[in-house]
Amino acid sequence: MSAMKMAMFALIWMGAATAQNPPARRDPFVGTFQGDGVVMDLAGSGGEYAGTVTFQGNRMSAKVKASGAGAAGTVEVNGQTYAFALTPSGGGFKLTSEGRAYQLERKGEDAPAATPATTPAPTGSIVGTWRGAQGTARFNPDGTGMVDGTPGRYEIRGDQLTLIGARGQITLGFELRGDVLTIKGSGGAVTLSRVQEEAGAGSVHMELVGRWCWISVTNANQGARQSSRCLTLNANGSYVYAGLTDSYNPYGGATSQSADSGTWTATETTLTARSVTGKVVTYQLEKRNHPKNVRDPMIVLDGQTFVTATNRAPW
Questions:
Q1: pLDDT tens digit string along 291-300?
Q2: Pairing of the two strands 100-107 and 92-97
Q3: Cα(314)–Cα(237) distance, rounded to whole angstroms?
Q4: For residues 105 and 88, what is the distance between their CA atoms, to the nearest angstrom?
Q5: What are phi and psi of 206, to 5 degrees?
Q6: Tens digits of per-residue pLDDT, 205-250?
Q7: What is the pTM of this model?
Q8: What's the sign of the alpha-carbon dihedral 47, 116, 146, 105?
Q9: Which of 25, 26, 32, 71 lies closest to 48, judged by CA?
Q10: What are φ and ψ of residue 21, in 5° steps?
Q11: How far apart are CA 91 and CA 89, in angstroms?
Q12: For the residues of 45-93, what is the DSSP string, one character each?
């Protein structure tokens, strides 16, 4: 297939080095982040960090390793290791662990100014969310954006669209006709359709109904670890979440479980979960196909991918 893949655009927005010399930027993971009863202090560089996470008065040592715009980390409690994930959110990160999510904002004089509220896209603007068979893209009013989950910036001059990322930049032609966006390059063209966003928490979207899972298996010389998280979205608006982590080493093993249930609604770009505990969380939602098994659709919630566990057509 000669058409240019969305992955080609996303690569421009990824990486660590560029041929140019950009101005020095603050390391996004270094500093103090606080919120939802959690305080995280991190120091380090080069994608590897160490520090502490304090939760409910308990201070735990933490290690974090960056991966793209997000990161994976661990905390140690009484000799037991627990995993968590960090995804960019607002002026800080969303920390997710064992099925729970905590919004952390950067504290101190380096905290960023509040982001202005998003304004509706004017007629003829590419601002908004776009989806096609080859991927997804979002262009924000402030010049930031995201292609298949990878953040960057963009500029428009006439019918030229410039994508700017850590590896440099690329300028492509584009054409906008109503709610259809065509991006053109030397390798072909990608056609995307505008996602019509709903106001509020939305409704039950039947295309999301079913079971979605994330599974990770790690084997090492001294042990193994397997984690799974499965989310079942029911047609009656209820959901069930279950997480399981098994760790083994020559000295024994440990198992941790997490579970939740409640009700859910969705828009084209968000999924809102209302837990029986009373907690309400709204996740950024993306619909993608698996990068290798391209006929397997996925949902991406705040950067966490869940692959379909039931037979369904790709997006």
A1: 888 788 999 8
A2: antiparallel
A3: 22
A4: 10
A5: -65, -25
A6: 888 999 999 888 777 666 778 888 999 999 999 999 999 888 877 7
A7: 0.49
A8: positive
A9: 71
A10: -115, 85
A11: 6
A12: ETTEEEEEEEETTEEEEEEEEEETTEEEEEEEETTEEEEEEEEEETTEE
